[in-house]
Amino acid sequence: MDTQDARQQLEQMLREIDSSSAILEAEGAGTGTEISHVDQHPGDVAGEFTDADNQNALLENSAEQRAQVVEALARLDAGTYGTCVDCGQQIPDARLEVRPEAARCVADQEKFEAAGG
């Protein structure tokens, strides 16, 4: 994959992640604050907790994806972009086109995830 194309894709991903995260945070994502101080039905409270959990998961996922994109941009700057961080082999262009932030080849990514990474 052309490094200039990769940089453009990664920078676009970073802008989209930052924008989405800012919107979620501006809407109070994950705070679980109640609108009313009047006791609510337990089902309503459970729904609020579920919503807060979902929002927190979205924010955590965004932060993790942002870190991966920033790391990929750092690999571009270092001249190591497209090289698997584990085995040192070239990551196929097809993988980088789908996941420009990928740090590992498919085989090493599977090992990484199986190990709990």
Write the layout of secondary structure elements.
Blueprint: H1 3-26, H2 42-78, H3 93-98, H4 106-114
Helix pairs in contact: 1-2
Q: What can you tell me about this protein's structure?
A:
The protein is mainly alpha-helical. The chain has one domain (3-25, 42-114): DksA, coiled-coil domain (Four Helix Bundle (Hemerythrin (Met), subunit A)), CATH 1.20.120.910. 65% of the residues lie in helices and 0% in strands. Helix 1 packs antiparallel against helix 2 (42-78). The protein starts with a helix and ends with a helix.
Task: Supply database-style keywords.
65% helix; 117 residues; Four Helix Bundle (Hemerythrin (Met), subunit A); mainly alpha; 4 helices
In short:
This protein has helices spanning 3-26, 42-78, 93-98, 106-114. With 117 residues, the protein is an all-alpha fold.
